[in-house]
Amino acid sequence: MLAFHVSKIVRTWIREHNAQVKAEGEGVRILPFRLPTQSPWLNPIEPKWVHGKRAVVETDGLLSAQQLAERICAYFGCSCEPHLSLLAKGA
Q1: Fewest beta carbons less than 10 Å away: which of 27, 51, 69, 85?
Q2: Do residues 48 and 78 make contact, with C-beta atoms less than 8 angstroms apart?
Q3: Each residue's pLDDT tens digit in the chain (91 positions)?
Q4: 83 and 45, same structural domain?
């Protein structure tokens, strides 16, 4: 879980928001539910990341940033957009 999801600032904001909704009788209360750590079956995107990672990485070497971007785009069927870090100098 990301640290900002459970930070004091976020918890305070949620509490104040819910108090305002209750007082005004308008809006939607927020009920945060913490998921247990290391529980990928509760997050439907996790299997996609696992299968994607297995499909694009090399077991015996590193890929360049360009190779990695191309493999990810090919696996997930998305267009490969240029990234600032991948542009050739002077381009």
Answers
A1: 85
A2: no
A3: 455 556 888 889 999 999 999 999 999 999 987 777 777 777 788 888 888 888 888 778 888 888 888 898 999 898 888 766 555 555 5
A4: yes
Q: Are residues 50 and 30 in the same domain?
A: no
Token representation of residue 55: 């499909």
Residue 5's φ and ψ, nearest 5 degrees, are: -70, -25
Q: Among 49, 43, 31, which Cα is nearest to 1's?
A: 43
Same domain, 87 and 46: yes
What pTM was computed for the model?
A: 0.46
3-state class (DSSP) for residue 15: helix
Q: Tell me how far apart the alpha carbons of residues 71 and 37 are, in angstroms, rounded to a whole number.
A: 29
